[in-house]
Specification:
The chain is mostly helical. Helices cover 73% and strands 0% of the residues. It is built from five helices and no strands.
Length: 117
């Protein structure tokens, strides 16, 4: 079991990182801390998807005389670049909404916001 975990350390690290983010989202009442937990979770998903594209002993898929199979899959990396752009824009939007909530309500604690309603 330990040997299998050691061979798949990148997957295990992604799962641990995801669980840390999920714990933060569930246990914290501060909206910024909750959103930081969501960012940790999406980073874990990015790392997991990139780890799926790794091929042991693989070469870069560049056409030329020195390229020999097996090749590394470049698709996960391209998808993650798109995901990072979406994550940055989502982060900017969420932080601006949190600032707007703080200006209007005077707090960013979720339990206090439930009482404001």
């Amino acid at each position: 079991m330990i040997d299998a975990l050691w061979q798949n350390l990148d997957y295990a690290a992604s799962v641990v990182l995801f669980c840390i983010g999920l714990y933060t989202v569930i246990t914290r009442e501060n909206l910024i801390k909750k959103f930081m937990g969501l960012n940790i979770m999406e980073t874990a998903v990015f790392a997991f998807i990139v780890a799926l594209g790794v091929v042991e002993g693989g070469d870069a898929p560049i056409a030329g005389s020195g390229a020999t199979p097996p090749f590394i899959n470049p698709l996960p990396q391209a998808l993650i670049l798109t995901g990072i752009v979406v994550a940055v824009s989502t982060t900017a939007l969420a932080l601006s909404l949190i600032i707007r909530i703080w200006r209007q309500c005077g707090t960013i604690e979720a339990d206090e916001l439930r009482e404001v309603e």
